[in-house]
Amino acid sequence: MTLARTRSVSLVGVDGWVVDVEAAITSGVPGLHLVGLPDTALSEARDRVRAAIFNSGEDYPNRHVTVSLCPASMPKKGSTFDLSIAVALLAAAEAVPPQACADLVLIGELGLDGRVRPIQGVLPAVLAAANQGCQTVVVPRANAAEAELVPGMKVVSAATLRGLLCLLRDEPPPVEDDEDDGPRSPADGFALRQQDFSPDLDLADVRGQAEARRALEISAAGGHHLFFAGPPGCGKTMLAERLPTLMPPLEPDTALEVTAIHSVAGTLRPGQPLITQPPFYAPHHTASRASMVGGGSGRVLQPGAVSLAHRGILFLDEAPEFAVGTLDALRQPLEEGEVRITRIEGMARFPARFTLVLAANPCPCAAAKQIDCSCAPGTRRKYTSRLSGPLLDRIDLKLELAPASRAELRFDLEFAESSQVVAERVQLARERTLRRLTGTAWRSNAEIPGPELRRRFTPPSDAMVSADEALQRGALSARGLDRVLRVAWTIADLTGHDEPDADDVGGALTLWSAGRQ
Ligand SMILES: Nc1ncnc2c1ncn2[C@@H]1O[C@H](COP(=O)(O)OP(=O)(O)O)[C@@H](O)[C@H]1O
Ligand SMILES: [Mg+2]
Ligand SMILES: [Zn+2]
């Protein structure tokens, strides 16, 4: 009996585990047997591996071959094990030196012609291999740039099985055509619109709307959710799309975390492996619940819009047009900062810590002036009440916008601050926040849990007069108070106060209470 071993990674959501792939050749009926809980896709691997080996000009061992993936209890999905199975099998047949591949982690799908095809999720898989002490990975050539983002990992890229075998045998590489089949699009074709980070957008484009601009600045500085209500054409979409221009670039560890999610989703742009700017996701209002929070039953579980917007912005334009179920599905990720999808094979986890921005017209007919509105009063009320109380209760900053006046539209240009000026203030405020939160797991005021907030970050009592009064009137709930306090800290950080004063708390209270019917 001859034995050989390689390794691969089993990926569930964005979490990966290194899997040992062992091949044994024994006497018995010729055939390839895969053991270790393979799903359908993995059984298909048998046929792909056989064809790929044959079409790479290798002798297929016409013997009894057993390939075992262990630990057997680990869920194994998808086609990412093809390469590790093929190499383990050939090493067991002594077609490649077993010691050359025993410690390699091989990730990749094989085409029937022996080409190594790109897969989704290479970055989180390689991150997992690195965390578990592996030093060398073999990945599809089209995914190499992504794998190279992982510090300290030696990355070998393979375009064909034949090329990889030459490398393992220390032979000169074959001549390969440089055909690039590029990254694959998400399997389920979710209706998502990714706004490219556009250097053309600038806050200075918006005239007037001082309060809304200020709210954007507070949101960017503290990570607070935001709701713009107002008549069509008053600039809601325009304002929301400029929020990313106020946010600092992602920290290196966060950039990897964000990129890992997009790697699984297959939404990384070729030639730009690392996402460094906060993502901006604006799903269409026809988006399904699954496209919002993730799911699917295909080969790979797809992250939803809430995860694609992780560490960035999820913008729901015309929010009342979304299905109620889709909106309700937002509550869990808003509360917990991640999505968990349970399937028979196990539980997938996708981070989902985003800033939610909602925009809404006052009624479905979207008349620019209330006088032109053709909706019955009941319809108007019903329209806005589609945004449920529990959802709006999670929004710290709520504004009712009026159209900018003609004078503002004409003359405000020279006074309007640019994104760069505001982004610098945001950066300073964030630094102040981080200094205060040193030694905690939180990076922004919006992330501080309620009990901690009340224990460690209570403003002085003379600053709390307006909030106390609102509590007494019943206009503010205990949960609402937490939200007001977090915003008050962000306003203090933006103003340079060591702690919120009465104006900061009052300002936060106004922003919390506005837009409530
Ligand atoms: N305050 C403003 N400053 C500059 N342009 C504005 C302003 N408000 C509206 N506009 C113009 O009106 C258009 C419509 O704005 P938009 O953001 O789509 O409105 P809404 O989303 O509220 O319906 C914008 O593309 C812009 O040209
Ligand atoms: Mg709009
Ligand atoms: Zn109307």
Structure summary:
Residues 222-405 form the AAA+ ATPase domain. This protein is α/β, with parallel strands linked by helices and 517 residues long.
Kindly report how far apart the N and C termini lie. 77 Å
Count of beta strands:
18
Strand order within the widest sheet?
Answer: 11-14-17-10-18
- Mean pLDDT equals 87
The CATH class of the largest domain: Alpha Beta
List each distinct ligand once: adenosine-5'-diphosphate, magnesium ion, zinc ion
Largest sheet: 5 strands, parallel
Unreliable residue runs? 181-196
Would you identify the CATH H-level superfamily of the largest domain? P-loop containing nucleotide triphosphate hydrolases
Shape: elongated
- CATH architecture descriptor of the largest domain: 3-Layer(aba) Sandwich
What portion of residues belong to β-strands?
15-25%
Q: If helices are DSSP runs of H or I spanning 4 or more residues, what is the number of helices?
A: 21
InterPro entries: AAA+_ATPase, CHLI-like, Mg_chelat-rel, Mg_chelat-rel_C, Mg_chelatse_chII-like_cat_dom, P-loop_NTPase, Ribosomal_Su5_D2-typ_SF, Ribsml_uS5_D2-typ_fold_subgr
GO molecular function: ATP binding
Keywords: ATP-binding, Nucleotide-binding
Protein name: ATP-binding protein
